[in-house]
């Protein structure tokens, strides 16, 4: 009798997670990855529907190739830890203040034998009105020079 391979399991994806465009979020912080086949190593791919236009993902374990984020030959626990730590940074000031921008993210987990398990997550970034930032500007005016117009860009 041949052993039967079971597909890996992916749970805990959350849709419509809010974040301001000047902040970050861990969109997969609640994801759980498991596989009842103890010797299976997993390949993980995370894809953003917008490529990097709406923001980027960062975590040291993943390798970015052609707009996709890859993690290869890892245990289910390593896959889960890496996904939980993945950080999304929205593109700042991409849209008009007060408007929102949705980024869809797909997780694919492949055990190399049975196929792919998918998960879907969305992040809704809201553009906020950023406070102005004053530079370290210095203006010098000669004493008794009359009226002086100063323009600061």
Description of the structure:
- It is a single chain.
- The chain contains one helix and ten strands; from the N terminus they run E-E-E-E-E-E-E-H-E-E-E.
- It has one helix at residues 76-85, and strands spanning 9-11, 17-20, 32-34, 42-48, 55-58, 63-65, 68-74, 87-90, 100-110, 116-126.
- It is elongated and about 100 Å long.
Structural class: mainly beta
Percent of residues in β-strands: 35-45%
Biggest β-sheet: count, sense, barrel? Answer: 6 strands, mixed
Please report the number of helical segments.
Answer: 1
Question: Can you list the strand order of the major beta sheet?
Answer: 2-10-9-4-7-6
Envelope shape: elongated
Query: Level of helix content?
Result: under 10%
Q: What's the end-to-end separation, in Å? A: 77 Å
Q: Number of DSSP strands?
A: 10
- Order of helical and strand elements: EEEEEEEHEEE
Radius of gyration: 23 Å
Mean pLDDT: 87
Unreliable residue stretches: none
Short summary:
The protein is mainly β. It contains one helix and ten strands, in the order βββββββαβββ.
SSE blueprint and pairings:
Elements: E1 9-11, E2 17-20, E3 32-34, E4 42-48, E5 55-58, E6 63-65, E7 68-74, H1 76-85, E8 87-90, E9 100-110, E10 116-126
Parallel strand pairs: 2-10
Antiparallel strand pairs: 1-3, 4-7, 4-9, 5-8, 6-7, 9-10
């Amino acid at each position: 009798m041949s052993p039967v391979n079971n597909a890996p399991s992916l749970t805990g994806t959350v849709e419509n997670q809010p974040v301001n465009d000047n902040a970050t979020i861990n969109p997969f912080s609640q994801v759980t990855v498991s596989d009842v086949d103890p010797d299976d190593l997993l390949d993980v791919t995370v894809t953003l529907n917008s490529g990097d236009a709406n923001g980027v993902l960062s975590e040291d374990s993943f390798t970015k190739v052609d707009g996709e984020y890859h993690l290869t030959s890892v245990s289910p626990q390593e896959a889960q830890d890496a996904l939980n730590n993945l950080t999304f940074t929205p593109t700042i000031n991409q849209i008009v203040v007060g408007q929102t921008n949705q980024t869809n993210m797909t997780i694919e987990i492949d055990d190399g034998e049975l196929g792919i398990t998918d998960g879907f997550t969305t992040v809704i970034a809201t553009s906020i009105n950023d406070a102005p930032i004053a530079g370290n500007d210095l203006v010098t005016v000669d004493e008794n020079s009359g009226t002086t117009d100063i323009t600061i860009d």
